[in-house]
Design brief:
Helices cover 73% and strands 0% of the residues. The protein is mostly helical.
């Protein structure tokens, strides 16, 4: 177990990344502008922590044990789920904004200015 202390450092960073991911989930469960900013900062922390795990494992030069490998894969899956969530949310909001622009008039379905049309003379009698 000569590498145990070095793996211990990687495990500490992996644990910190797990804690940050739990905080991301908690923050995103209460949507707000502040929550978006905080979750972005927390996800950046996860990225840094996983980078530290990777650097430690590269420095050791050995294959990570099953526990570390499983932990990294778990976080990788959680990040992938969040990425899919954010992509879907972006598409939903973009579609919603396009719909609002279209309904407001003067815009095409793509949100571009509609071509002007000439209106024949109207006469209004009252």
């Amino acid at each position: 177990m000569q590498n145990a202390p070095q793996y211990g450092d990687a495990r500490e960073y992996l644990q910190a990344a797990r804690v940050s991911m739990r905080q991301v989930k908690r923050v995103l469960s209460q949507p707000s502008i502040e929550a978006a900013d905080e979750s972005a900062a927390l996800l950046r922390d996860v990225e840094v922590q996983l980078g530290c795990v990777a650097a430690i494992l590269r420095q050791i030069g050995a294959q990570p044990d099953a526990e570390i490998r499983a932990g990294v894969e778990e976080l990788q899956n959680e990040v992938a789920v969040l990425a899919t969530f954010f992509t879907g949310a972006d598409k939903l909001l973009s579609g919603w904004l396009d719909g609002v622009r279209t309904r407001r008039g003067g815009y095409t379905v793509r949100g571009q200015a509609a071509p002007l049309t000439l209106v024949r003379k109207l006469s209004v009698e009252g």
